[in-house]
Amino acid sequence: MKNLPFFCYMQQFLQYLASEKRSSLHTIAAYRSDLEQFSAFIQLHFEVEDLLSVTTMMVRSWISHWMDQGMAVSTVHRKVSSLQAYYRFERKQGRLVQNPMQGIVKPKKTNILPQYLEVVQAEQMYQPREQGWEALRNSLILQLLYETGMRRSELLGIQEKDIDWSKGQVRVLGKRNKIRVIPISPTLIQELQVLRDENRTVSETSSFLFLNTKGEPLSTFQLYQIVKKQLSKWTTLKKRSPHILRHSFASHMLNQGADLNVIKEILGHSSLAATQVYTHLNIEKLKGIHELLHPRNED
Q1: What residues act catalytically?
Q2: Rounded Cα distance, 58 and 46, in Å
Q3: How confident is the model at residue 287 (pLDDT cuts 50, 70, 90)?
Q4: Edge to edge, what strands does the sheet with 179-183 contain?
């Protein structure tokens, strides 16, 4: 049986995220999952059902649990942020006597730079492909992710009406429901028009650009499988996700001399700080070349 007070409070919190914070469905689902996991954890280990009775020690125990499980520090950070947001909400509601998040310090992050494809690897996605609708769809998914740097959720949400075929641009719905317009190359626009027309053989009614074989909008899992399978042909990178193509877009644009503010706008970053990580990538690459080729660096 569900803990009704917690369930009701959580629903109020999630509604607050949707209506006032205008958080995306993906973000809201992550908050829900984190809160449900935390609730299950304190019930199992401390026999506490009321989240308003949680102590700082319980939160620290939960963090230690995930770190012992080998969870990525970035994921642990997100889970802690979920709790912080929830307890801030409860404090505003006047239901919280003592905030258990006071004194909580997130585990220290290591500065791991994003991985990206080399240009020669990215060029492989433009090689002649197999015939057929499915091969065309798979190819254009990778090309669109790489040429625009859009997020997976943005790509999955594209409908035919979102593309201005004459101007060569696509409108996407980003984080916090912010809409932005991204340019598309003439060649890619022509290819997407072919896909749009061939989609009618899969579904006569769906307006989404990327469909599965049943004529339904492509799911996140299906997208990951397509990207992973395609990238496995060209790279040995451990991570082969849609986000790798976003990183590759930004890194290659910067290497070609694009202004950082332009990259920021195309990526949809809220601040320049998020985009500046790619300058570090560029510097690290230059350092590697310098160490390899400069005569004063010889052994």
Answers
A1: 151, 175, 243, 246, 269, 278
A2: 8
A3: low
A4: 163-164, 169-173, 179-183
The answer to the question of residue 297 being in a domain is no
Domain that holds residue 249: 119-291
87 in the same domain as 160: no
Q: How is residue 31 written in tokens? A: 């908050």
Q: Which two tokens stand for residue 64?
A: 């230690």
Please tell me whether residues 181 and 230 are part of one structural domain: yes
Q: Is 201 exposed, middle or buried (0-12, 13-18, 19+ CB in 10 A)?
A: exposed
Tokens of 50: 């009321």
Residues 227-245 pLDDT 10s: 999 999 988 888 899 999 9
Number of domains in the chain: 2
* pTM score: 0.65
User: What CATH number did the domain enclosing 229 receive?
Assistant: 1.10.443.10
Residues 166-208 pLDDT 10s: 999 999 998 878 899 999 999 999 999 999 999 999 999 999 9
d(CA 246, CA 182): 13
Tokens standing for 260?
Answer: 């950082």
